[in-house]
Amino acid sequence: MSLADALSRQRPTRPTGLLLPALLGGLLVVYFAVPFAAFLARTGSVDILGSLSSPEARTAIRNSLLTAPAATLIATVFGIPLAYVLARKSFPGKRLIEGLVILPLIVPPVVGGAMLLTAVGRFTPIGSAAAAAEIPLTGSLFGVVLAQTFVAAPFVIITAQSGFSAIDERLEQSSRSLGHGPLATFWNVSLPLARGAIVAGIVLTFARAIGEFGATMMVAYNPRTMPTRIWVEFIAGGIDAIVPLALALFAITLAVLAAVQYFGRVPTVIDG
Fold this sequence. Notes:
The chain is mostly helical. It has helices at 3-10, 19-40, 48-52, 55-88, 94-106, 109-120, 125-132, 141-165, 169-177, 182-193, 195-210, 214-219, 226-237, 239-263. The chain has a single domain (48-263), classed as MetI-like (MetI-like fold). It has 14 helices and no strands. Helix 4 (55-88) packs antiparallel against helix 11 (195-210), helix 4 (55-88) packs across helix 13 and helix 11 runs antiparallel to helix 14 (239-263). The chain is globular and about 65 Å long. The relative contact order is 0.13. The model is unreliable at 266-272 (pLDDT under 50).
């Protein structure tokens, strides 16, 4: 036995090296948990089923379940190709495009809604043309989808770009050398290898879309979605009045996350 081996065996392990990080992280976990626990504690005094059966609540739930998947689909169909291009190509203006992708995450949602109004509002060229075609882009479910897509699409783009960037380009080159074209290589090699990051981005996009309030309130305060209905209920009746819809919104996001984790493990942005 060498001297180094003997010393390593005699030296006691010191798990206390993780004590400070564990304490700091634990405080943040407690900070996350306490509001959930306090909010759930109020459910006993509220008629949840009765409140959710009201026409207003049912309409808000229906609108959210229509618009959030639509916004997520749009973000996915257009965002994944963009993420792949950003991950694989260098070109003039790339930094500008990446900045534009991140911008909706930085600006307050209400400001984002105001930006959308200046682009597609009823009195803008785009908005007036859409209204003439009986496709109003504000004060409609179309407006809700526009607002949700604006604020939520960056999540799938950023996470998918990270997933594509982590793929060894030699695997794609090998596919091309075997005679597969760019699209076949993207479909059969790149997408499966980046699947975890893409699924994570889709889940985050849906969760952000279904919970969007600020931009939606600016672009389409009516028809009500769950977040805008929650605001109306809060103004009228305080916290107890919003408990049923808030629980429904929370349950929907948890159900989607659980389903995705069941059918295909989602890496936490969390797992990378």
